[in-house]
Design brief:
- The protein has 275 residues and is of the alpha+beta class.
- It has an eight-stranded antiparallel sheet with strand order 3-2-1-8-4-5-6-7. It has a five-stranded antiparallel sheet with strand order 11-10-9-12-13.
- β12 and β13 form a beta hairpin.
- 30% of the residues are buried.
- It starts with 9 loop residues before the first strand and ends with a helix.
- It is built from seven helices and 13 strands.
Length: 275
């Protein structure tokens, strides 16, 4: 969908139970044979969140890691809707924040007709020994200023203390994200190729050559408000009014409940009320 964005090379995809190797439809037997020596790769579900199911692994001679699991058994275990990609090699300045994880930018963009604005940018940083940087897995996040520098504090799970120094010993305040302007321009340009999504959360890494690389784009991104403050900023009322005008696509979701009906003015006051 976004061929102009640099992305990790994908070996194998499973879409609704069907396999595609190098974008060609194959059987599970062919997928197992062709992928027998993919090397060091990442497997991740495509319809999941919070880093669930993401696994770093070595595939050699049809065997996964040293545990002796057959590749075919692993593919069956994941059932459907997942992919296997090359591991990204990140920029040394990004790796310094936590060398065990790919530390990503979460950039949220808002499309207003032919204009795309960046609502905010945050950086997500993993903890020592962790492969993923999600807050739900113990990671931390902090706001990225317009000049690409980091704010003083990072935030983790609710109730945790504010963090000024990463587990690897890097002081956050003033630390510069390499190629930050490039990353902003890339997501703004490519959001115009998504006509059905006005709000998008982009997960961007900076690779070893200093180039932004897109890992994921999210149509229902969680908002890093502990780190960045009100996510929609000056566009809050505009976004809320537009959302209220549209049909509720979650009305059939048993986890979604509107406790009491409110008009848009009351809702806006509730959202913007200072805690």
């Amino acid at each position: 969908m976004l061929p102009n964005m640099k992305q990790p090379h994908t070996y194998l995809k499973n879409r609704n139970g069907y396999f595609y190797y190098e974008n060609k439809p194959v059987s599970i037997e062919e997928a197992t044979r062709l992928g027998a020596n993919m090397g060091e790769v990442i497997i991740k579900p495509t319809l999941s969140s919070h880093g669930r199911g993401v696994k770093k692994m070595l595939v050699k001679n049809g065997i996964v890691d040293q545990e002796g699991t057959k590749l075919k058994d692993l593919l069956l275990k994941y059932k459907k809707n997942y992919l296997i990609q090359d591991i990204v090699r990140q920029h040394p300045d990004m790796s310094a924040l936590n060398p065990d994880s790919i530390n990503t930018l979460r950039i949220v963009t808002y499309r207003r007709g032919m204009e795309v604005v960046v609502l905010y940018a945050a950086i997500r940083i993993g903890r020592e020994g962790q492969t993923i940087d999600n807050e739900s897995a113990g990671g931390i996040s902090t706001k990225v200023n317009n000049d690409g520098s980091l704010c003083k504090y990072a935030y983790g799970a609710p109730g945790q203390d504010k963090i000024e120094i990463t587990d690897s010993g890097v002081k956050l305040e003033g630390y510069k994200v390499p190629s930050f302007e490039k990353a902003l321009e890339m997501v703004k340009e490519n959001h115009l190729n998504l006509p059905f999504q006005d709000l998008v959360g982009w997960d961007i890494c900076i690779d070893e050559d200093g180039e932004p690389e897109m890992l994921e784009w999210n149509t229902t991104p969680e908002l890093s408000q502990s780190a960045v403050g009100p996510a929609f900023g000056e566009y809050t009322e505009e976004i809320v009014r537009e959302a209220m005008r549209r049909p509720n696509s979650r009305s059939g979701d048993p986890t979604y409940r509107m406790l009491e009906p409110v008009n848009v003015e009351t809702l806006f006051k509730l959202i913007t009320k200072k805690l």
